[in-house]
Amino acid sequence: MKKMQISLILITAATAVFFACGGKKSDAGPGGDGGGTKPPVDTPVVTIPTTPYKSLNYLYKISGTKTVAGIHNREPNATPAVWTEKVYSVTGKYPGLWSGDFLFQQDNINDRQTMINEAIDQWNKGALVNIMWHSCNPALAEPCGFDANGVLSKLTNDQWTELTTDGSAMNNKWKALVDEVCFYLQQLKDKNVEVLWRPMHEMNQGSFWWAGRPGPTGTRKLYQMLHDYMVKTKGLTNLIWVWDVQDFGSLNDDVNAYNPGADYYDVAALDVYDGSGYTQAKYNTMVTVAAGKPIAIGECQKLPTAAQLTAQPKWTFFMGWSELEFSNNSDADIKNLHTAPNVITLDKMPGWK
User: Fold this and answer.
1) Where are the alpha helices (DSSP H) in 105-164?
2) 276: exposed, middle or buried (Cβ count in 10 Å: 0-12, 13-18, 19+)
3) Where are the domains of the chain?
4) What's the pTM value of the predicted model, to 2 decimals?
5) Where is the signal peptide, in residue numbers (predicted)?
6) Which 8-state DSSP code applies to residue 36?
7) Catalytic residues
8) Tens of pLDDT along 130-143?
9) How far apart are CA 26 and CA 259, in angstroms?
């Protein structure tokens, strides 16, 4: 993540005007016809964030006013726009954000190139490109399943220590897995495609092998190592890092225990699944921890309403989770949201040319 450059525009104007009548200073008080001395008028400080990324700058621009509609396209990678097309069939609008996943099964690994080709196409159409990675456990094998022998497996404390020790056997095996996806992300860099990169998502979700380890030597350490390896070693400067947690009751503590630090992410995202919905408390927590960075709804099954987004205007995008969007929301509700004036679909995106 490249550090943000800040442009400050400060315009200060002070005017003192005296009115005279017949060569004498008017005795009229404030508000009188004579006017009197007027106080200086200061315009407020306007802070305009600028970053190297067109799409990140756009998120800063819309924060507080509008929200980009998005959807994830889960497996199979052979059809990497199937849920994007489903949104269009229901609403007559394409989402402004497209999402894909490198995944973990052999067939989906084989079709990673198809997914990447779709990412390039979506970027050229003007969409935000979001990519995540349900990765296999480096202590086991790839390919793997979404089970206790794969994505949902565990590491012992000793294995975790080895994994997060640079140059160890397991650390090198992990880097080999990372290298596989870097090959595809480099293609996107070569095509000038910016990626909202959301690895190790739901860091406070203990079901995943990478997650559920709070503190400086836990999950956030591996995230920091991943960031430094991909950016500094592999040179993937087209990645916009999305740090992501889930909306558990422990959220207030989790955003600190799993926070990799401001230099390690560009966007703070919350996955909303717990059933209580889009509470003001969750929103306030994310606004506070982001400290001026964009915030987003990283995943959801129940979509927010346009009214909720108006009340919580700093959500810069939401991403419905594939089939769950359609099983948890009526077609009418989905259409109403995507046609709301404060929601941005592909036809309203600025384009990246």
Assistant:
1) 106-110, 112-125, 157-163
2) exposed
3) 1-50, 52-348
4) 0.87
5) 1-19
6) -
7) 202, 299
8) 999 999 999 999 99
9) 63
